[in-house]
Specification:
Strand content: 25-35%
Number of domains: 2
Bound molecules: adenosine-5'-triphosphate
Structural class: alpha+beta
Distance between the termini: 47 Å
Radius of gyration: 26 Å
CATH class of the largest domain: Alpha Beta
Low-confidence stretches: 1-21
Largest sheet: 6 strands, mixed
Helix content: 25-40%
Strand order of the largest sheet: 6-7-8-3-9-10
CATH superfamily of the largest domain: P-loop containing nucleotide triphosphate hydrolases
CATH architecture of the largest domain: 3-Layer(aba) Sandwich
């Protein structure tokens, strides 16, 4: 790995992948716009990624993750806006001049080369010594559990194995930036979890700025220093896994993160017994709000309409009546082993006649059946309020 006290001569430093040269890579995207014909794939995108940071681009299929990554790599060009790497504007630099290693979902291996030579290829290209290449190739092969395949050609490998070879080829290099586009898409579940842990540890050891694309929120949460949630080409929120999960800034982020996702129900401020409370629309659920919370709900949001959000794990349920708790009937019980997920019926939508449901997570020993009445308590500190029209968080 990186040898801190051993300074190779200058020409060595330039070609040795394991050198002590720590390449800095602060990345900045400023007002990026990318269109394909009339279709806007990336819109007014602003993002700063710190040196050595591990940022995950997360969002549903087609939201613009790969396009943004390709813009950074230089494989696409922005119609407007600037891209900087370490303070240098790189809009006009070719991919080869950006010192970036990328692994894409659709790996491209050299079919005539063995696995060993495929992984060694980037090192041979910069004339690293044979013994150093051997050490590096064997090291990554071990991490990726492909040591016994080094002599094989890609044509006899499975999709998951080819993906690991492509990953290995990026891992032997020490570029300024790693761009990884769903690099584990073809791996089976166990290897995926192992490789995820290795990628995280390796990135920490190497300290290279990394951008990782995925639509898998568990992968994003487990890997990222910060997650950039993208929807329809727009950066919805950038924050630590804790922040995007617990402090979503938009309805999209609130509804995208978490399994099961956050409960999101229409609500309005109303007066009850002379006190201003939040009513969940078309239900008999009235929630008291602290004066501080009420003060944050501005007139525009009230006019646009409110959406109330709470995660299933932030509702407590008991099966005996208790003062101040809300009585409701159990609509469905899903025992998942470690937890139970209950669908609770709060009312009926007057137009669609659809049940208005709330998901609650309970301990598996909490025994209830469909039709039982239970009593609920909502933690005010875990409640979220969004503006229905702008879809941004209000409070
Ligand atoms: P996925 O998770 O499915 O890979 P993504 O979030 O990475 O999706 P992109 O590949 O960035 O999405 O694509 C964003 C949108 O831009 C999609 O609707 C896609 O069809 C469109 N798009 C991407 N590349 C092109 C292209 N070369 N020409 C036309 N449309 C494109």
């Amino acid at each position: 790995m990186v040898r801190i006290n051993q300074k190779p001569p200058r020409n060595e430093m330039e070609r040795c992948p394991d050198s002590i040269v720590k390449k800095m890579a602060h990345i900045k995207l400023e007002n990026i716009l990318k269109r394909f014909g009339d279709f806007v794939a990336v819109r007014d995108f602003n993002l700063e990624i710190q040196d050595k940071e591990f940022v995950v681009f997360l969002g549903p299929s087609g939201c613009g993750k790969t396009t943004t990554l390709r813009l950074i790599a230089g494989l696409e060009h922005p119609e407007a806006g600037d891209i900087f790497i370490e303070g240098r504007r790189v809009n006009d630099l070719s991919p080869a001049d950006r010192d970036i290693a990328f692994v894409f979902q659709f790996y491209a291996l050299y079919p005539h080369l063995t696995v060993y030579d495929n992984i060694a290829f980037p090192l041979k290209a910069v004339k690293v010594s044979k013994s150093e290449i051997d050490t590096q190739v064997k090291r990554v092969a071990e991490i990726l559990q492909i040591s016994d395949m080094l002599g094989r050609k890609p044509s006899v490998l499975s999709g998951g194995e080819m993906q690991r070879v492509a990953l290995g080829r990026a891992m032997v290099r020490q570029p300024k930036v790693y761009l990884l586009d769903e690099p584990m898409a073809n791996l089976d579940a166990k290897i995926r979890v192992d490789t995820r842990a290795e990628i995280k540890r390796l990135q920490h050891d190497i300290g290279a700025t990394t951008i990782f694309v995925t639509h898998d929120q568990v992968e994003a949460m487990s890997l990222a220093d910060r997650i950039a949630v993208i929807h329809h080409g727009v950066l919805q929120q950038i924050g630590t896994p804790y922040e995007v999960y617990n402090r979503p800034e938009s309805l999209f982020v609130a509804g995208f993160m978490g399994m099961p996702t956050m409960n999101l129900l229409d609500a309005e401020l109303t007066a009850r017994d002379g006190v201003s409370v939040l009513r969940l629309s078309h239900t008999d659920v009235y929630l008291p709000l602290s004066p501080e919370r009420q003060a944050t709900i501005n007139a525009t949001a009230q006019e646009n309409g409110l959406v109330f959000g709470i995660r299933p794990e932030h509702i407590t349920a008991v099966n005996q009546p208790e003062a101040q708790k809300i009585a409701a009937d159990v609509h469905l019980v899903e025992p998942l082993g470690a937890v139970n997920i209950l669908d609770i019926r709060l009312g009926t939508h007057p137009e669609t006649q659809e049940p208005i449901l709330l998901r609650v997570r309970t301990h598996p020993t909490f025994r209830v059946a469909i039709g039982d009445t239970i009593w609920l308590d909502f933690s005010e500190t875990e409640m979220h309020l969004f503006d229905r029209k702008t879809e941004r968080v209000v409070s």
